[in-house]
Amino acid sequence: MPKIFLIGFMGSGKSTVGKQLASLLNYEFIDLDDLIERNEQSTINDIFIMKGEEYFRTKESFYLKSLDPIMNAVVATGGGTPCFSDNMKWMNEQGITVYLKANISVLSARLNKESDHRPLLKNINENNLPDFITAKLKERERYYLQSKYAVDADKLDGESLLRQINF
User: Fold this and answer.
1) What are residue 31's phi and psi, to 5 degrees?
2) CA dist 14 to 89, 106, 127, Å?
3) Average pLDDT per run of 10 along the chain, which is 167 residues long?
4) Cβ partners under 8 Å of residue 42, min gap 6
5) What are phi and psi of 66, to 5 degrees?
6) Number of folded domains in the chain?
7) What is the Cβ-side half-sphere exposure of residue 128, based on CA atoms within 13 angstroms?
8) By C-alpha distance, which of 79, 66, 58, 83 is closest to 3?
9) Is the pTM above the cut of 0.85?
10) Domain hosting residue 137, numbered range
């Protein structure tokens, strides 16, 4: 069975829904950010601060492409993963890609509580968050839309995702 790669903007629910979907399918669940933190022995935040985004993106692509090719897994990627190093092309070749598409207001509400843990949100205040998300989505959506499936993630759970991707 192919891997399922969940992509989308930070806060779209990739980790939450991914765990539910993996459980339903009896698959492994892999959160790419968690995998990077374990292997690098550092938080994503600290990697960005100490080594920069370019280093992080290189490692992100390395760990993504190092996943066991025969492991059945649901993989929650980082929000920027599809946008670098031909990662989107690679994921489409290796499995099923699913874009969890969330509304700007939903993303803003979710991310407002998490800005301390998100390197790209460090200097964005609550009032500017919707504009930041809109601008970043404009940059990234051309990659996200290369997914095999695009699903509304505003009120998504594992069971409804499973039905939508006909897996």
Assistant:
1) -95, 115
2) 19, 14, 25
3) 93 94 96 97 94 96 95 96 97 96 92 77 85 95 97 88 82
4) 50
5) -95, 0
6) 1
7) 9
8) 66
9) yes
10) 3-164
